[in-house]
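Researcher: Re-running this chain for the archive, since the previous output was lost when a drive failed. Same request as before.
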Amino acid sequence: MSSASQTDRKEFEVIAVGAGFADIGAAIKLSEAGFDFIVLEKAAQIGGVWQENNYPDCACDIPSALYSYSFAPNPNWSSFFAGQKEIQNYTLDTARKFGVSDHIQVNCELLNSCWNSEKRLWELETGTGRYSALCHYGLRPDAQDGYAGHQGYGYLHRHQLSLGRVEPQL
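Model: Regenerated structure tokens:
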């Protein structure tokens, strides 16, 4: 995802945490507006829930045409409710098309963040080093008090589970 020159740098105007569907859209708009930014993603690939949730028949629960970036519509969805892999590919393709892939640092989990009022910037500690930024995108509104550990949401499918039929108890 990111180039060597981008990963060597540790200071940015904006740091976005997470590279899910909405975050890729934000990265594209940050790029278009000329911001100096990086996106930190804990996983090995971008896509958020569409990268992590790959259980059988995982699909969008709204019409695919509505689950598109307004600036990059996809008129070629294969079904009314697109599947996980198709949405994941759309996200990857859109990030490449708009040139934000080089702004994404994968395998970079956020461990801690705090606001340094003296320096007037965010200081973030990740599994790959320390970063700092004037603006920090992707945490809960109360995150100015700091962040320690995963506070996210979502469902991670346990592939070792059997998906047998469950009979109702009468």
